[in-house]
């Protein structure tokens, strides 16, 4: 399942969180303590070398920068909705 790193009181994280909810994208939250966990060596080397949130890990595909994540979520939503004729702009 997609892992979402971050805290909801971060604006870019809340944008990603909101789109996951709108698109009914299942995710596992991985809460970070602000300005701490995202600077840990494991996070820097395995998730995001810039040490920022949000970031996602979708089955080993790791992505950061909220806008990139939002585009990715739209793409996977479109792919899974294509069979039902849905587009990225459709609400569930
Ligand atoms: N342009 C980045 C900005 C990311 C960013 O600066 N996030 C802040 C929180 S809003 C951050 O990671 N701060 C360090 C921390 O919380 O550990 C994005 O949109 O993802």
Entry keywords:
alpha+beta; single chain; 4 strands; Glutaredoxin; four-stranded mixed beta sheet
Write the layout of secondary structure elements.
Blueprint lengths: L1 E5 L4 H12 L4 E5 L9 H6 L8 E4 L2 E4 L1 H16 L11
Parallel strand pairs: 1-2
Antiparallel strand pairs: 1-3, 3-4
Helix pairs in contact: 1-3
Helix fraction, binned, reads 25-40%
Span of the ends, CA to CA: 19 Å
- What is the CATH C level class, in words? Alpha Beta
Mean pLDDT reading: 91
Bound molecules: glutathione
CATH superfamily: Glutaredoxin
Name the helix and strand elements from N-terminus to C-terminus, one letter apiece: EHEHEEH
Number of domains: 1
Strand fraction equals: 15-25%
> Strands across the major sheet, in which order?
2-1-3-4
Supply the helix-strand structural class: alpha+beta
Tell me about the largest β-sheet.
4 strands, mixed
CATH fold group: Glutaredoxin
Helical segment count: 3
Radius of gyration: 13 Å
Coarse shape: globular
The CATH architecture category equals 3-Layer(aba) Sandwich
Write a short abstract of this structure:
By secondary structure, the protein is an alpha+beta fold. It has helices spanning 11-22, 41-46, 66-81; strands at 2-6, 27-31, 55-58, 61-64. Helix 1 runs parallel beside helix 3.
